[in-house]
UniProtKB/TrEMBL annotation:
SUPFAM superfamilies: NAD(P)-binding Rossmann-fold domains (SSF51735)
Keyword Oxidoreductase: yes
Organism: Recurvomyces mirabilis
Record-given protein name: Uncharacterized protein
Family membership: Belongs to the short-chain dehydrogenases/reductases (SDR) family.
The entry's keywords: NADP, Oxidoreductase, Rhamnose metabolism
């Protein structure tokens, strides 16, 4: 039994599907207590129930429902961790939206949704997490889930890539602001990953073959590929790692193919 996170309380936004779910499951396997956040709909509640059934100890898992773009939801997540698990040691800002859209015909609502969830939601959830960690005086780890899109452009992602660059920049600045409290802030930058957000894109066989040809490891990522690096950043193994960006893209961003 892996035990890298025994005694730690964690919270993860957008955590019943994709990368967030994979991280939550791995944190639970490593002994952490976990608060997950998900949207207020039947499908999300059903996914949470399946996560409970898979948990080694269901008592170490609870949920907070709501859209992370709402400031109150971020505060509720942190309060839930304190109430149920006595504090907060790790916070993963994972919730995000990603749609492929044409720049010239983009609707204001699409841009607003990306900014509100990916940037505003990350800020208003990590701020209360940091406040609790500072008050407890035990340090902590804040992890932002960005994307290789923080460094790469995309013709149909002009509204999206700046939001992921903002997450990276936010974590770097938080590392500067919170280091004196022993709080480490780092960023994971996934490459193309088999999540709900990417399902339609990856269903195109020609597009999938093209993507795989550009990745030295020869495949797109599974959500579980992000879980190990997230455990590392949450654990004491990374106690001197702060302000870092960890690419988890199979080598895509450095490939010349």
């Amino acid at each position: 039994m892996a035990t890298l996170l025994i005694g730690k309380a964690a919270a993860i936004t957008g955590a019943v599907t994709g990368i967030g779910r994979a991280i939550a499951a791995e944190y639970l396997r490593h002994g952490a207590s976990v608060v997950v956040n998900h949207l207020d709909d039947d499908a999300s509640r059903e996914r949470f129930e399946t996560l409970v059934k898979q948990a080694p100890d269901p008592k170490k898992l609870c949920a907070v429902v709501g859209n992370i773009a709402d400031r109150d939801v971020g505060q509720s997540i942190v309060r839930s961790a304190v109430k149920h698990f006595g504090g907060l040691d790790v916070f993963v800002a994972n919730a995000g939206v990603s749609q492929f859209k044409d720049l010239l015909t983009l609707e204001p609502a699409t841009l607003e949704a990306h900014v509100q969830t990916n940037i505003i939601g990350t800020f208003w959830s990590t701020q209360p997490a940091a406040q609790v960690m500072v008050d407890r005086k035990k340090g902590g780890s804040i992890i932002g889930i960005s994307s290789i899109s923080a460094h790469l452009g995309g013709a149909q992602q002009v509204h999206y890539t700046p939001t992921k660059a903002a997450v990276l920049s936010m974590m770097q600045s938080q590392a500067c602001a919170l280091g004196k409290y022993g709080i480490r802030c780092n960023t994971l930058l996934p490459g193309t990953t088999r999540t709900q957000l990417a399902a339609e894109d990856l269903a195109d066989d020609a597009k999938l073959k093209y993507l795989e040809s550009r990745i030295p490891l020869g495949r797109v990522a599974d959500p579980e590929d992000m879980a190990g690096p997230a455990v590392f950043l949450a654990s004491d193994m990374s106690r001197y790692v702060s302000g870092a960006e960890i690419l988890v893209d199979g080598g895509c961003s450095i490939s010349l193919q």
